[in-house]
Every structure is written in C-alpha cells, then in structure tokens.
Amino acid sequence: MYNRIRDLREDHDMNQTQVAKYLGMSQTGYSKYETGENDLPTSVLIKLSRLYNTSIDYLLNETDETSPYPRK
Q1: Using the 8-state DSSP alphabet, how is residue 26 labeled?
Q2: Cα four-point dihedral sign 26, 37, 64, 15
Q3: Which of 11, 26, 45, 46 minimizes the number of CB atoms within 10 Å of its CB?
Q4: What does the mean pLDDT of the chain come to?
Q5: What confidence tens digit (pLDDT) does each residue in 19-50 have?
C-alpha cells in the first residue's frame, strides 16, 4: 500500500510537501505514511482517493482497478 501512494504521488508530478499541504499536515507526517511508519487514517485515505481520483481499495492494494466507485 505504501508504495502505491508514493507511486501515485510521483505519477501526478507532486512532491511530499504538496500532498502534505493538501492534507493539512507536515511533510514529515506525510512521509511517515509513505514509509509505513504510521498507518493511514480513514480521513486521509478519503482525501487521497479524491486527490488521485481512485478508489480506497486501490490505495489499500485490494484491487488493481484504478477507477473510483461512483460517489453519492
């Protein structure tokens, strides 16, 4: 899972500081998500899925399907 969020960030030509700012946190805090030092809270998973327009299942490495589910 942690490689997937790093790869998505890099695919979107973003750095950790930019993603951290979007999430409202420090770059160091975000870095700990990418390395697996800290688990991703649900609220962060939701924000990342919206940022990258993908499903939470994809972020969690439960599927290789990148398309998000229809939102309510």
Answers
A1: -
A2: positive
A3: 11
A4: 92
A5: 999 999 999 999 999 999 999 999 999 999 99
